[in-house]
Design a protein that fits this description.
The chain is built from 8 helices and 8 strands; from the N terminus they run βαβαβαβαββαβαβαα. The protein is α/β, with parallel strands linked by helices. It is globular and about 40 Å long. Belongs to the ribulose-phosphate 3-epimerase family.
Length: 218
């Protein structure tokens, strides 16, 4: 079953409670929360206070994506702020196994993200320990970017590694997701589709989330 995780980064921040409540009423499985520090990625989004505010109104689990340097400093704080899933970047974690174990000790699902230039093979030693792998299908930092076509091959390769190792992690994809590429993304092996601008800039976000979910079944 394909899950949709709308990215709250694309919401109207002057009406954040309204948009969170819209997602509560939708068929989305998660609310994706992008945290950017202006260092690991060339953009600043928001931090703990906004995450806490989202959690206050959310009825869907928060899927928190830490696009930050030295994420270990803030794992406990984001768990306390409501994160059900905490995803860190392979590229930002020199002691990735320890970071993953810490996330799980905090009671959250542990995710690892890889940038477009990073081959999924570098994750071979961690696949048995994670709950989620996030494949970035754009360069992280900004919404509304063009989807990178090589993503399909990366997802398919990761799905092959999952099957060969009999692993249970889910595959999430983030960046440029829409109803046109959703069928191929899921047929390649993706389980969770993150969509921001495509959902929040549509005339009917609830219907768009349904359309994405149904496209993923094709």
């Amino acid at each position: 079953m394909t899950e949709i995780a709308p990215s709250i980064l694309a919401a109207d921040f002057a009406n954040l409670q309204r948009d969170v409540e819209m997602l509560n009423a939708s068929s989305a499985g998660y609310i994706h929360v992008d945290i950017m520090d202006g260092m690991f990625v060339p953009n600043i989004s928001f931090g703990l206070p906004v995450c806490e505010a989202i959690y206050k109104h959310a009825k869907k689990p928060l899927d928190v994506h830490l696009m930050i340097e030295q994420p270990d400093r803030y794992l406990a704080e984001f768990r306390h702020a409501g994160a059900s899933v905490i995803t860190v970047h392979y590229e930002a974690c020199p002691h990735l196994h320890r970071t993953v174990q810490h996330i799980k000790e905090l009671g959250a699902m542990a995710g690892v993200a890889v940038n477009p230039h990073t081959p999924v093979e570098v994750l071979s030693e961690i696949l048995g320990d994670v709950d989620l792998i996030l494949i970035m299908s754009v360069n992280p930092g900004f919404g509304g970017q063009t989807f990178i076509e090589n993503t399909y091959k990366k997802i398919a390769r990761l799905d092959q590694m999952r099957k060969e190792g009999n692993h249970k992690f889910v595959i999430e994809v983030d960046g440029g997701v829409n109803t046109s590429n959703a069928p191929l993304l899921t047929s390649s092996g993706a389980d969770v589709l993150v969509a921001g601008s495509f959902v929040f800039r549509s005339s009917n976000p609830l219907q768009t989330i349904d359309d994405l979910k149904n496209a993923g079944k094709l």
